[in-house]
Amino acid sequence: MDLTMVIGMLVRSIVICNFMFTSSWLANTCPSMCNCFNGVQVFCSNNKITQIPADIPANVTDLMFLETFITSLKGESFASCNSLMKILLVSNNIHAIDEDTFQGLPHLTDLEISANPLDVIKPRTFNNLRELQKLIITHNSIRNIPCNLFENTTKLQLLALQGNNISEICPGLFSQLKNLRELNLASNEISKLPIDSFKHLRNLSILKLNDNNITQILPGSFDKLSNLTELSLDGNHLTRIFRYTFESLTSLKKLSVVKNSIKELNPCIFSTLNNLKWLAIESNQITTLPAGIFDGLQNLANLLLGGNQLQTIPKGIFLNLENLETLVLSYNQIRSLEYDAFEGLQSLTHIYLDNNQLEALHENIFKNTSNLLVISLHHNLLRVLPEGIYGHLPNLVSIVLHNNQWWCDCSFSHFLNWMKENRDVTQISEIMCEGPEHLRGKSITLLKNRDLKCPESQNPSFMVKEIALTNGTEENIIQSVCKSYLTSNGSLIIHCEVTVCSSINVNICRMDETSTTSFTKEGSQCEPTNLKFTITST
Asked: Exposed end of the chain (fewer CB within 10 Å): N or C?
């Protein structure tokens, strides 16, 4: 029994318990080993019950059997219950249903037969249920659905057949279900879909075909489903999707094709899906994204591309996704990203780049995505993040960085300081040094700047001249002893500790050129402050 089934049963149990606490029990008219509520609801759950009780009151509208030992349903099972509107038969031991079981139930609108060892449904079983709106026959052992099973249930709005062993669908099986809104055929053994399977379901909103054995979907299969809003094709054996497969699905909002074997996508395959908000193509074998593949998806909010074989992201591929909020690129083979890879994603709040092979990031990679809240970069090959990358992330809440190749030498100093200043964002306790050898495996939380062994600068063209400290209207000139380091990439790092009250002006001179920078801190209390400057030759 899968999780969906368990959750469904739990929900039903909660509803039943609610009846028990809020309704009166009519012991004088209730069948043995059952509970009755409001005079019209009967709930039976006892493994000693082996058949439908004969003394169910005639005015009962709701009948529920849960975990009994009923083995079959016969023509007389509900003979005296012509007021029934709802029957639930869940987790019993039903293995046979007579064709005339449900005759004489003109008001029945809701029928569920789930989690039973039932393997056969006879052709005329539902012939008299002309008012039926909801039919759930799930998690049984049914292998075949008779071609005329639904010919008289024309008012059906929900039909759920998931979790059986159905291997094929008759052409025209659903031809009379013009009012159907939701069809669930998931978790069966369907390998082929007749091209006209759904052509009469013009009001269908949700179609679930996931977890079957479908190898291809013929062009035209969805042509009449212009009102469809959700389509799930996950967990099948699709190797390709034809260009016009989704062309008529102009109302579609959610499309999921996860866990198939798709290797390439036609560049026009999504071009008509202007209302799409969720697109999941994870866990396939896609190696590249063709130019224009996402053109026309201006309303897309979630794009899931994880678990493929992408090695790079083509320039401008996301350019028209101005409303995209979540982008998943995890578990690919991406080695590098151009600085403008995410151009056009001004609404992006979550990006997942973990479990790739990224060795470096450009400092402007997130320049156009200033609304980012969450960045996932763990399990890559990153050695350091460029210093300029942080300035583009004013709204950052979380950046996940563990399991990379962090190289804790002098070039790592700015990154180390930034992480320590942003502990609430970086999850710093999980980050370890990969090298140099003397720091391998050392937690970043224990790392000091002196551990990075930055060489003191011997370059005489750089020196700290003076620091002017201003507090109110009084200005004091303080000579400060500052340390400077020359990194391996030629950048000069100057580190000073001074007492700052309200503001500080820093003058850095190179020969006859002077550069002045001012800082203002919050509060008026004087306190020691660490200042660090990086000067890079260009």
From this structure: C
Tens-digit pLDDT profile for residues 384-423 = 999 889 889 999 999 999 999 999 998 888 888 888 888 8
Q: HEC profile for 254-281?
A: EEECCCCCCCCCCCCCCCCCCCCCEEEC
Distance CA 328, CA 345 (A): 13
What CA–CA distance (Å, rounded) separates 204 from 177? 9
Q: What domain range is 504 assigned to?
A: 463-535
Which H, E and C letters describe 476-537, residue by residue? EEECCCCEEEECCCCCEEEEEEEEECCEEEEEEEECCEEEEEEEECCCCCCEEEEEEEEECC
Question: Which one-letter amino acid corresponds to residue 75?
Answer: G
- CB-CB neighbours of 242 under 10 Å: 15
First to last CA, the chain: 65
Quickly state the pLDDT bin for 370 (edges 50, 70, 90). Answer: very high
* Predicted pLDDT at 512: 52
Q: Specify if 198 maps to a domain.
A: no
- Mean pLDDT of the 13-33 span: 55
CA distances (Å), origin 253, targets 178, 222, 297: 21, 15, 10
Q: Is the pLDDT of residue 475 over 90?
A: no
User: Residues with Cβ < 8 Å from 458, sequence gap 6 or more?
Assistant: 486
Q: What is the mean pLDDT of residues 60-74?
A: 97
Beta-ladder partners of 508: 515
User: How do strand 483-486 and strand 492-500 relate by DSSP bridges?
Assistant: antiparallel
CB count in 10 Å sphere of residue 427: 15
What does DSSP assign to residue 166? Answer: -
How many Cβ atoms from other residues are within 10 Å of residue 151's Cβ?
17
Q: Of the candidates 188, 152, 154, which has an alpha carbon nearest to the alpha carbon of residue 169?
A: 188
Whether 475 is covered by a domain: the verdict is yes
CA nearest neighbour of 344 among 306, 394, 298: 298
What are the E-state strand segments in 284-418? 302-304, 326-328, 350-352, 374-376, 398-400
CA-only gyration radius of the chain, Å: 34
Residue 530 lies in a domain: yes
Sign of CA dihedral 357, 360, 362, 363: positive
What are the CA-CA distances from residue 48 to residues 32, 34, 93, 325 (Å)? 10, 11, 12, 54
Tokens standing for residue 495: 């580190």
Q: Is residue 279 part of a domain?
A: no
Distance in angstroms (rounded) separating the CA atoms of residues 44 and 265: 52
- Mean predicted confidence (pLDDT) in 261-289: 97
Tell the burial category of 149 from Cβ atoms under 10 Å away from its Cβ (0-12, 13-18, 19+).
buried
Residue type, 254: K
Confidence of residue 122 (pLDDT cuts 50, 70, 90): very high
Give the chain's domain count. 1
Q: Over 510-521, what HEC string results?
A: ECCEEEEEEEEC
